[in-house]
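Changelog-adjacent note: as of this version, every example in the card shows the full chain rather than a window. The one below runs 332 residues end to end.
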Amino acid sequence: MAVAINNSMPHSFRNQLKYCSGLALALFLLCSHLSSATTLRFAWDPSSDPNVAGYTVAYGTTSGQYTKSLNAGNSSNATVASLTPGTTYYFVVTAYNSMGLQSLPSNEVALSLPPNVPPSVALTSPQGGTFDGLSPIGMTATATDADGTVVKVEFYEDATKVGEAANAPYSASWSNATTGSHVLTALAYDDSGAAVRSVGVPITVSSATSSPTPSPTPTPTTDTKVKIQSMTPIIKAGQNAKFKITSSDSAMAQSMSVNYALSGTAKGGLNYSMSGVTGQITIPVGSRNAMLTLTTLSVPGDPGNKTATVTIMPGPGYTPGRATATVKILGH
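Full-length structure tokens:
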């Protein structure tokens, strides 16, 4: 018995064929991507020899040396998996009878598999800024793979992994952030094992222990009232929310520190970041007003319709007047 493989395959593969006498078998290839490998499916015309019990596909990375084999049984096709992209493989087919005796190998076919294209990844949130270490910091990323699939995205704070996601939309939350400057990145892996890191995004985390905290309710020393008003009642995610804090004194002789608290369905570090304030804002000397800004974040896949509420808390030298204001954050 003898087996021969004819050249019938996609032009993207390099073929080296030597024909031998015997039964002509037509070879067809279909490529698909598995985890960290490429799959090739072979098909051939079955032998008319009644003594043939089955076929074996043998292959290796050196011509004439076949370190691996696959028993196709009496089927006229086989799938060879776990092939490494960018590698040249050499294939032959043999037939065997019921006693296990094998024929001489067919003509050798050489296939050069295309190299793997690494994935692409970008950290979409946060985009920088200052964050309060008391609140989790939300992280989101986009990732694609031109010749396969993204199997996971890992999220890093400097060199420390803080989370991962296996499916889009890729997101994680960094809790217990330490005070100081950090660089956030996302690392994407494709189904061929290639990994690519995103461009780093620098952020600053404020000290949770050094942040001003609302004071207990004191006995007011003056009749000064402090009220708050939302200047942007409804905004889209990614825009700035502004709150105007006003003292009842027409011209203050000294600056006043006003305590406030944040609440609502929006989450700090995920739906918004603070802009230079961490629980206390100062009305300067000679002024009645101070503007509090929340920078909202655009999170892919977030339906929006979140609320952020700022409440004036009691503090030395004033009492809260109209103490609460709310902004509604729509989806991006």
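Structural remarks: The chain has three domains: 3-112, 120-206, 225-330.
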